[in-house]
Design goal:
about 120 residues; alpha+beta; 2,3-Dihydroxybiphenyl 1,2-Dioxygenase, domain 1
Length: about 120
């Protein structure tokens, strides 16, 4: 199951206005704002806008996060993705800066997309 999706945008303020307006009829609102990010959703952020920069250009780096059933499943995802040809983009571990129990691992797939498996993000 998809956990969340992030797209890089050229102008975060304009994109936030566009998406909060366009997605309001579907019940999505901006639930989280931080420097360079806006997370939209109903109960929790599932669609993220990220300000593009030199590291994360607008035209690249689609970010897909998949829900894992356990921290062990996150670790297994990371290992399997490396074995399948992915590149490490963040070893499995707790990321309390996102959420107190947020355990995730990140991989860049062969197309340059950032894949994540996450467990315990509320």
């Amino acid at each position: 199951m998809l956990n969340h999706l992030t797209i890089n945008v050229a102008n975060l303020a304009a994109s936030k206005t566009f998406y909060t307006t366009a997605l309001a009829p579907l019940g999505l609102t901006c639930l989280f704002t931080a420097d360079g990010y806006c997370g939209l959703g109903v109960d929790r952020p599932i669609f993220w806008l990220s300000q593009a920069d030199a590291t994360h250009p607008q035209s690249t780096n689609l970010h897909l996060a998949f829900t894992a059933e356990s921290a062990a499943a996150v670790t297994a995802f990371h290992a399997a993705a490396l074995q399948a040809g992915g590149t490490d983009n963040g070893v499995p571990g707790l990321r309390s800066e996102y959420h107190a129990t947020y355990f995730a691992g990140f991989i860049i797939d062969p197309n340059g997309h950032n894949l994540e498996a996450v467990f315990g993000n509320g």
